[in-house]
Write a structure and sequence with these properties.
- Residues 29-143, 170-243 form the 3-hydroxyacyl-CoA dehydrogenase NAD binding domain.
- Residues 245-342 form the 3-hydroxyacyl-CoA dehydrogenase C-terminal domain.
- The record marks 199 as: Important for catalytic activity.
- It is an enzyme of class 1 (oxidoreductase).
- The chain has 343 residues and is an alpha/beta fold.
- The chain has two domains: 26-143 and 169-241, NAD(P)-binding Rossmann-like Domain (Rossmann fold), CATH 3.40.50.720; 249-335, N-(1-d-carboxylethyl)-l-norvaline Dehydrogenase, domain 2 (Orthogonal Bundle).
- It is 48% helix and 13% strand.
- The strands form two sheets. An eight-stranded mixed beta sheet has the order 3-2-1-4-7-8-9-10. It has a two-stranded antiparallel sheet with strand order 5-6.
Length: 343
Amino acid sequence: MAFVTRQFMRSMSSSSTASASAKKIIVKHVTVIGGGLMGAGIAQVAAATGHTVVLVDQTEDILAKSKKGIEESLRKVAKKKFAENPKAGGEFVEKTLSSIATSTDAASVVHSTDLVVEAIVENLKVKNELFKRLDKFAAERIIGESHGPGADPPPPPTLERSSVSSSVIHTIFASNTSSLQITSIANATTRQDRFAGLHFFNPVPLMKLVEVIKTPMTSQKTFESLVDFSKALGKHPVACKDTPGFIVNRLLVPYLMEAIRLYERGDASKEDIDTAMKLGAGYPMGPFELLDYVGLDTTKFIVDGWHEIDVKNPLHQPSPFLNKLVAENKFGKKTGEGFYKYK
C-alpha cells in the first residue's frame, strides 16, 4: 500500500510540475518600444533567434535610422559568423530583417504580442504613462490556443473569459530601465504579476548578460518565462530583486563615483587611475574611459536618483566635478568631450 501511495504521489507531483510548466509563456512575438541603441539591439537579437518583432518609436525617420543600424550590425555579425560562407551570411541578414516590422502606434500592435519590452527615456512619469496606456490594449489569450505567425489576433477580453483566471494568460510587460524601480513602473498597470525588469547591456548583440528583475508582485510563472526568453536569445540571465541598480550598476556606479572623488581630491590623475585599474585589476576600460562611454549625464541621473532615496549614504553623494561637466553639456563620447576629448 505504501508503494502504491508513493507512486500515486510521484504521479501527482509529476503531473503538477508538467501543468505548471505548460502554463509558462513561450515568447514568440515581441514588441520593443524605443528604437534607440538599446531597443534596436534587443529587436536585433530577438529577430536573429527566431522571434517575430515589432519595433516601435515616435516617427518613421527614427525607425528608418534604427533599421539601418540593425542591418549594419547584422552584417558585422554575419561577416564573423559566416566567414567561410558569405551567401549564408547574406541569407541570415535578410531573414532577420524580414522578422522585424516597425510601427509608430504602440497601442495598435500590442494586442497580439507575447512580450512588450520598453527601452525608452529614463523618466518614471513617461514610462508610467506608456504602460498605463498599453495595459488597456495588450492581449489576453486562452492557454493552448494558436498564436503562431499568421494566426488571427485574439478577440477582445470579455467578462466571462476574464473570470477564469486559471486559464487566461496576459501579455508580459518588461522594462529595460537601469536605474528606476521596477515596482514603481509596474504599479501604473493592472498586471503587476505580469511585470518584471529585463535589463540588457550595451551593446546588446555582444553583451551576454541579462538581469531579470522580480518585484514582490511578479509571479513565478512570469519570472521563469522571462528567464527562458533570455536563454532563447543566447543570453545568460541572472536573477535579482527590485533593489536600486540591481546587481551590476549597484556595484559599478559607486566604483565610478569613487574614482571621480579620488580625482577631485587630487590623489591621482585620471590617466593614472585608468591605467591602474586596467593593469592592476584587469579591467578592459578605466573608470573615466567607462564614464565617457556610458555618458556622464546618465551616471549623474542614476546617482541623483539614488541620493534622493538614501540621502545619508556616502556612496550616493553627488560629485561637484561631474555636475559641472554635465552642466557644460560634456557628456562623454556622444558629445565629443567628457573627462577626455574625442574631437
